[in-house]
Amino acid sequence: MIKLIVGSKGAGKTKILIDQVNKAAKTTNGSVVCIEKAMNLQFEIVPSVRLIHADEYDIKGFDVFYGFLSGVLAGNYDIKDLFVDGILRIGGEVKDLEGFADLVERVEKLVKDEVTVTFTVSTDVDNIPERIKKYL
Asked: How much is the pTM?
């Protein structure tokens, strides 16, 4: 399952994500993983969550991210909730919303209904491609 938390910069997306991550850590029957571009969440996320700093793995671009995500999921079959903060910054310097939509469709096929993947997306809802608005 895919979920999107969308809004302009400063709209509170990260706060919503933090609340969802910490809630999942308390209620899930599996592992919780959070991937972020910069190490900003380490003091906000409960210690039981696996926090991954994307820059440490030189993840740049949606194709590289997809490969990394596939490896994370293949390495731990117990992951039930996976959160990604700042996906457009991970995707590259240019906000490629169509490239992000392609990524979402690929990730949906990868995780099926076994893992819930939540992305924060820094843009207005109107900018989200129609084909992925169903995940809002």
From this structure: 0.94
